[in-house]
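Thread title: Can someone regenerate the structure for this chain?

I was given the following input by a collaborator and told the matching C-alpha cells would be attached. They weren't. Posting the sequence so someone can regenerate them.
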Amino acid sequence: MLGVAHAGSYHRAMDSISPSDMTLDELRDELAPRIAANAVFDGWTDRALRDAADAAAVPFERAKLVFPNGGIDMIDAWISAIDREMERRNAADSIAALKIRDRISRLIQSRLDISLPQREAVRRALAVLALPTNVPKATRISWRTADAMWRLAGDTATDFNHYTKRMTLAGIYAATLLVWLDDDSDGQSDTRAFLDRRIDGVMRFEKAKARLKPDPDRHFSPTRLLGRLRYPDR
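Best answer:
Regenerated them for you:
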C-alpha cells in the first residue's frame, strides 16, 4: 500500500504553478507529500495539514477543503503520490527484461525506498487505515496499489486471475510492510529476504498445484502469482 525526504520528487510538473493558482486536485497532489513529512511527528492530523499549508503558502481553510474527511483523505492522497513516483522510477521499458516475479519484487522494493524517509508516517497511516470506519476505503486503496503494480509489471489478465493476482499481491505487500516498519538491518536486508520468501512461497504453491492438476492447455507461469496467501517463517 504505502515518500522521499522532501516533496519535490512527487510533483515536478507543478513547479511552475503557484499553489494559490492550483485547482483542488492539483493542490491535493502538492500538499500530500508535505503532509506526510509532518505526519512523521504529528500524525495525520490538522496540525500536519496546517504546517504543510503554511509551507506551501496556502490558506489553511482552503487546504481543509482538499481533505474533507481528514486523515484518511490525506493518506489516500499520499499513497496516490507514491503510486505515481513508483511509476516514474519504473517505466515499463526499464523492467520489461525482468522475469515477472522480479518485476513485482522490484516494484514493492521501490515503494519501500520511496517511503523510507517517512517510515513513521507509514506506521501512523496503517493505524488510521485499520480503524473500523476506514476499512472499506483502506481496502480500495490497497486494491488500487496492487492494480498499479500489476499493470506496471505488464499484466493484461481480464479473467478471474485479474482479481486473484491483485488480492495475493495486496497481501504480500501488506505483510512485507509490517516487517519493513521494524527492520533496522543494513539496507533493510531482512525485509528483502522476507519478500523473496513470500514470493517464492506463492510460486512453489502454484507449481505444486500445476503438478497435482495437470491440464494440457495450461502450464504454470510466473505471471500466475495467485492462490493462497502463505505465511512462511521469517
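The chain has one domain: 7-212.
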